[in-house]
Structures are given as C-alpha cells and as structure tokens.
Amino acid sequence: MTHFYRTTAIAVIALLCITAVIMSVAVWLSSHKTPFLPGSKSGIDWFHRTEPPDLTRNNKVIVLEDGQRSDKAAFNLVLAPDETLPFASYIFYLADPKTVADLVDLSGYSAISFRIRCEPKNVLIFALYTYVEGVTKLDRPETFRVSLDFFTCTEQGSELTFKLRELDSIDWWLERYGLEYTDRTSDLQKVHGFAFNNSLQSPKGTEIRVEVSDLVLIEERRLPIFVGAAIVILAWLAFAYFLLKAYVREQIRFANAQVDANRPLVAYQKLSLSQDSDRLEAKLLRHIAVEYVNPDINIESTAASLGTTRTQINKILKSELGLTYTAYINKLRLTEAARLLADEPSLSVKQIAFGVGFANVTYFNLLFKKNTAVRR
To answer: Are residues 276 and 309 located together in one domain of the fold?
Structure first.
C-alpha cells in the first residue's frame, strides 16, 4: 500500500499544479482591456474639453498634450487662491449627443484603469457622467449624474483602477435634482464621459501638473472562468473515479499478498490431506505444526525425531515453501500470536509470546513489528 499512497500523493500534487495553470489561464482570458489612451490606439471615439473652457478665468486648465495625438494627456490645473470652492476639470467626452441614442454603452466594462502622476502631490477626483431619465438635458452637461471617487496623486506616479459600478453619486447633485440619496446607481448604458477634477485639498495659486497615460477600459468575461472551472471539475471527478478503481485493485492485491504471506499454513494443510501421508514432507510439516509452541524445538531435534538430516529438512522446506526451518517456525508462531492478539484481548503480550514458543519477549516484539511492517 505504501507504493499506492506515494503514487496517489504525486498524482494529487500534479493535478493541483494543472488546476492552478488552467485557472490562471482562465482568469487571464476573463479580463479583456480596451485601449483608450493614447487616442491613436483607442477602440472608442472620444474628444477632450476643459472646464472652465477659457483661459481668462481665475480657475483654468492649460492643456499641454491632449492624448489624442500623443501617448498621454498632460495638463496644468490652476486654482484661484481667493475662491472658496475652486473647480477645474479635464474631461474625456465619449459623445457630443444630439439624442439619447448618441450616448455610449459601457455596461460591458467593469472598470477603468490608468497611470497618473501629479506635481505637486495632491488629492484629485475621478468623475463619471451618466444620463438620468427625466433629469438630464443633453444640452446642459451639469444635469448629467456625477459619480466619483477620490485618489491621491503623487510625483512618483501610480497605477489606479476604479470599478465603474462602485463610483458613488454625490449628495449635492442628488439633492439639486430632487433624487433620493438612495438613488446612487449610474446607468452605464448611457455614458457621456469622465473627467479628472481638482478636490478641495488640491493646492491653490500654483500650477498643478497632471499626466495621465495607459488608460484602458476593462471588460470581465465569465465564460473563460466557467469553462476553466468545468474542465477542472471534470478532471478531478475523473481522477476520483480512477483513484477509486486503483484503490480497489490495490486492496485486492494486498489481500492476495496477505494470503501468500500465510501460505506455509495452507501448504501444510494440503500436504496433510494428500494420499501419501507417510511422505517425509507431510511428516515434517505435521511435526512442526504440533511442536512449534515448544521453545526448545530446533532443527537437530526435529531431524532426530524424523530420522533424517538437517540438510534434508531445509531442502524440503525450501522446495515446498520457500522458507528455511527457522523462518517457517517463526512464521507459524507469529501467525498464531496475531490470532491470539485479535481473539484473546485478556492475554498479555508476554503470555502470548511464551504461549506460541518464544522464550524471549524482546525478540518476539522485534520479529512481530518487523513482520507487521513488511505486510503493510
């Protein structure tokens, strides 16, 4: 059984590795990225605008690179030092809608990811603009729902990911248009655009340089996960089926090995029932079967009792049973000892050892443990 358990352990480890590979590939295939920035690689048409739109205002956005013809969008936010609520925004518009049908459907995407760097370090806002039935007027951008999240923008730069469905609608916008505070879900089927805005923790009176690059929309596909999981489940079920069959075969083999291990007793029974019961082989086995419990029995005394030689005795036992005289005696004693241990729990190990012919309990324990280990 040791070989079976070792082989099973190796097979389980191999199947675990295969499972890890299959699920890793499934996870990799389940996430598809649609490039958005730079614009030359974008799978979605877009254009940029700024708020406020003109540079004569106290708050302004100075565009350095628009991202449509460059690898990144770079701009400076300038916030007026004397304004309580300064606001400046670089906006990525996905449509210039004349009808609701012109708005873009992003419901197939789960997240947006980008790399951003700011100098100096400050807190900015990522905002998503979506259409709300009965509230939004297409010619009034301020009526689109504003869903947002805050993030820290550093001089070293960092890669950020926002879950589109987890962006939170702001309370003042809901209150302005008479919506309940619980109505916070954006309609991703009707998206106008998204923007990078300053926050109230952005520095005033200085230019804040912002660089946005590697902007992508992330689409999560469930089919690869389902297919990968199905393959893994089928693989484990097949493994369990073949393991069960192999275990049954191993149990049968082990049982047969146990029978073979006790073959000396069977051999004696067959010889004792043979027609020629006066043969030396039968006499030898009968004699040993009766006298093996005698601790003083040895090959010389057996040879004298049967009128033969020790050489002839060993030759018979080797030929018939494949064992030496001493090995056969010990086999009979250990077999009987195992039976007594199972059937007579009231007997001590010492009593059993002496009862089956061992004069030394330590020697009996050593042989019994060795014989048990070999069978296992």
So the answer is: yes
